Amino acid sequence: MGQCGITSSKTVLVFLNLIFWAAAGILCYVGAYVFITYDDYDHFFEDVYTLIPAVIIIAVGTLLFIIGLIGCCATIRESRCGLATFVIILLLVFITEVVVVVLGYIYRAKVEDEVDHSIQKVYNGYNGTNPDAASRAIDYVQRQLRCCGIHNYSDWENTVWFKQTKNNSVPLSCCKAALSNCTGSLTRPMDLYSEGCEALVVKKLQEIMMYVIWAALAFAAIQLLGMLCACIVLCRRSRDPAYELLITGGTYA
């Protein structure tokens, strides 16, 4: 029974180390995705500290490559020192991922207030004739999320750009994608996206933060299993004097 238990633990541990390498790539991808998406929406969300969970998760992903290597070597050689180091590093990474989850929830809760605070200023700074970064951001969001204005297309009537153009129309990015002859005129509201952008931007940013949270939770669970298997191997080696290394061709007691 002991032999079966330890053999199973080591088999699972080797398999988990291979998963750690895959997890490292996935975590780095999730972190990079957050950075890229934030760049598209940064005018609506000015708190750069929101990126802290993404930075941590990329660092954790990089560390998982090293952990996987240490874990494989320690498991194959059944090194007590290597396995102990493996467990300690996994524990530290697990704590870090718990921190990521907590920070993710904190910043996810702040998204709505941040967007509500900044979106009016962004729309008031829109310049349709000589688009600057903020203007491009608005056009990108309106096309990407299929929305118009803050709460609806009528919000454009209160902007500086609308009052200066005096043509009773909204930006072409408000036009429904399927329509090729749309001019953005408010006399044809059926041609425009009816939903406002604020709620959709908030939803998008909260979804991105949830990706980070779920990724951290999923791999934290895998790491718990890894620590458990490593501890089983360590305890077996400590308690059974007849236990011998597989690498030397020895047998279990």
CATH fold-level label of the largest domain? Cd81 Antigen, Extracellular Domain, Chain: A
Given this structure, which CATH class of the largest domain is correct?
Answer: Mainly Alpha
Total number of strands: 0
Instruction: Supply Rg.
Output: 27 Å
Number of helices: 6
Q: Largest sheet, if any?
A: none
Overall geometry comes to elongated
Name of the CATH architecture of the largest domain: Orthogonal Bundle
Based on secondary structure, the structural category is mainly alpha
Unreliable runs: 1-6, 241-253
Could you tell me how far the N terminus lies from the C terminus, measured between alpha carbons in angstroms?
Answer: 11 Å
Order of helices and strands: HHHHHH
Q: Going by CATH, what is the homologous superfamily of the largest domain?
A: Tetraspanin
Percent range for helical residues?
Answer: 55-70%
**Rounded average pLDDT:** 79
**Beta-strand percentage range:** under 5%
Number of domains: 2
